[in-house]
Amino acid sequence: MLSIKNLQVSIEDKAILRGLNLDVGSGEVHAIMGPNGSGKSTLSHVLAGREGYQVTAGEVLFDGQDLLALEPEQRAHKGIFLGMQYPVELPGVNNMTFMRESLNTIHRARGEAELDVPEFMQRVREKARLLELDEQLLKRNVNVGFSGGEKKRNEILQMAMLEPRLAILDETDSGLDIDALRIIAGGVNALRSPQRSIILITHYQRLLDYIQPDTVHVLLEGRIVRSGDKQLALELEEKGYGWIEQEAAA
Amino acid sequence: MITAEQQRSWVQQLMTRADAGLPGQSPGWLDHARKAARQAVAGLPVLDRKQEAWRYTSIEALLKQCFRPADEAADLPALDINDCLLPAFDSYRLVFVNGRYDPQLSSIEALPDGVNVGSLCAGLSTDPELLATWFGQTANHTEHVFTAMNTALVNDGVFIHVGSQLELGRPIEVIYLSQVDDDPLLMQPRNLIVLDAGAKATLVERFIGFGPSAYFHNNLTEISVGKGASLNHYRVQDESRSAYHLSSLYLSQQAQSLYRGTTLAFGGAWARTDYNSTFKQEGAVCELNGLYTVGDQQLIDFHLNVQHSFPGCVSREQFKGVLYGKGRAVFDGRILVDKQAQHSDAQLSNDNLMLSRNAEVDTKPQLEIYADDVKCSHGTTVGELDPQQVFYLRSRGIDESTARKMLCLGFAAEVLDSINLPALRDAASRKLGDTLNAAVEEWGGKT
């Protein structure tokens, strides 16, 4: 589904990703771990199409199509979803109106029928209940005055509504208490399917206790230096990144 | 640069042309006010950059136009009022066409006893004492040349009086329709609104303009809100793009009264609104909200002069602007808290969203505080759309133009949401949406 080959990305001429390779198949869950500054968030932003990054080499194919040639909204239409590390607040933009606009735009782009208001309401309420998200938050402005945990749950709610083919969750677990983590993991697990792939970007092994990945990758200085099963995450938890750094340097 | 002589001869010429239109019979006090204003004109200072209140608002283009008042028949086009009505909006309605009251298009039947709504001319016969008492009480006729001009040439306007403890079940709506296809025209409504103690009313003023020619809508409104009375006052300025518009509002509030003023300014080539607000007793509340959009060939200007002269009064001023193209805006908000006005509570803000690098705003919030136990704040912002917010929406499948439009509407929402009349709020929201469509289109794909 997703194939990244030799991806090299700079921010203001500073190289961040230095030849990253990654293949994610349909229905797979991949975790990407790595220390601060290794390029995890850059990878997620580049995949979603955020401005401010220069791709200097390499390619990203999504279903065989050049993903980097697409505008951010076109990527969303193709089924890419980025759960943000820091979801922004949108003052004056109603959460429900926003989600409906988003969902219907994507449906239109795919030539699918739009949801009418009752259908939409029913679906959004159902998904919000699953994420134990207070229905009042749907009536508020997007993320305005939400707690950290509520913002993250609102991201997963959008993922549940948009039903993406590839979800990239950028440190969705950061800043969450254990109960919120469990709820969010439950929401993500409910969305696992053979047609949907997930990339989890995280600092901590803890998330992977709740969402079991098929593959764990270690990102270091802009490259994936090691891949393994979830045992690798446990090893990292125990020993830190130092030993991999040494191996990679050797 | 304009000179004092230019300004003087422009006004003199205009007044000479306008004299014919004045009604023959009028009470002595009105004649006196007219004469005094006329005499004052020659001595009034020229409104150039040296006048702080006119520093960023040049009247040069205005003085190049040669206006005259609308003639009886020839200048009064047949307009279909239905095109201008808000859907599902039940109101007591006064309609002015090119500055003249049109009783056929108006609808003020079934007013409750103790409530007078009509034209100023009608008021001269229905309630002459009240008019004589209140006319010129709050306005400063010689504030500048345009207020003097309005007073010197008073011929008609709106007169509203709501008696003690009365509450109107429907809003009063005033529609100023302008359609100017040939000679530039002058319209100068002179309005007087008096709410007695405990009265409650909602007033909606809508300025609507059509036609390619210039006109000058120079209105002056005096408002008195009695003890414990409350007035919700909405104003929607949607003049034609060839229009010059000046609204001078003079507001006087008694104890525990509430005035909520909301002005939405969308139209005009040159449009200015001056709010002069004075508390006459303790415990009054004055809220002024505003929203403006300006694009190419447009200047929109707001001046607030809020005077806290008595203790324990509250004022809230919130103005937001969306600027695109080469639009220009001016905001000058002044709050004065006198020495004796302890426990005054004043908050003033002005936020500007710049959609283009060629737009310009001159914003100047001023707090002058002479009391020592007050709660006052002011702030102003000038910013662009946040690229992170735009990206957030785009990453959810929403195209860039729509994303920008949603964020602009969100920026304006606070002001629009404060409109308590759904029909008016929806119309304003649609108007803003249309304006933003044009703005976003003009802006195109530029980043």
List keywords for this structure.
heterodimer, A: 250 residues, alpha/beta, four-stranded antiparallel beta sheet, 10 helices, globular, B: 447 residues, eleven-stranded mixed beta sheet, ten-stranded mixed beta sheet, 9 helices
Uncertain runs of chain B are none
Q: Using DSSP, what is the number of strands of chain A?
A: 10
Mean pLDDT of chain A: 93
Structural class of chain B: alpha/beta
* Largest pleated sheet of chain A: 6 strands, mixed
Order of helices and strands of chain A: EEEHEEHEHHHHEHEHEEHH
Mean pLDDT across residues of chain B: 93
Helix residue percentage of chain B: 10-25%
Q: What is the CA–CA distance across the termini of chain B?
A: 37 Å
Name the helix and strand elements of chain B from N-terminus to C-terminus, one letter apiece: HHHEEEEHHHEEEEEEEEEEEEEEEEEHHH
Would you identify the regions of chain A where 5 or more consecutive residues have pLDDT less than 50? none
Characterize the main sheet of chain B: 11 strands, mixed
State the share of residues found in helices of chain A, binned by percent.
Answer: 40-55%
> What radius of gyration of chain B results from the CA coordinates?
21 Å
Q: Structural class from helices and strands of chain A?
A: alpha/beta
Please state the oligomeric state of the protein chains shown.
heterodimer
Shape descriptor of chain A reads globular
Termini Cα gap of chain A: 33 Å
Which range does the strand content of chain B fall in? 35-45%
Largest protein-protein interface: A-B, 28 and 24 residues
Shape of chain B: globular
Describe the structure.
Helix content of chain A is 40%, strand content 26%. In chain A, helix 4 crosses helix 6. Chain A is globular and about 60 Å long. With 447 residues, chain B is an alpha/beta fold. Chain B is 23% helix and 37% strand. In chain B, strands 1, 4, 5, 7, 8, 10, 12, 14, 16, 18 and 20 form an eleven-stranded mixed sheet that branches. In chain B, strands 3-2-6-9-11-13-15-17-19-21 form a ten-stranded mixed sheet, covered by helices on one side. The two termini of chain B are 37 Å apart. The mean pLDDT of chain B is 93. Chains A and B meet through helix 2 and helix 3 of A and helix 7 and helix 8 of B.
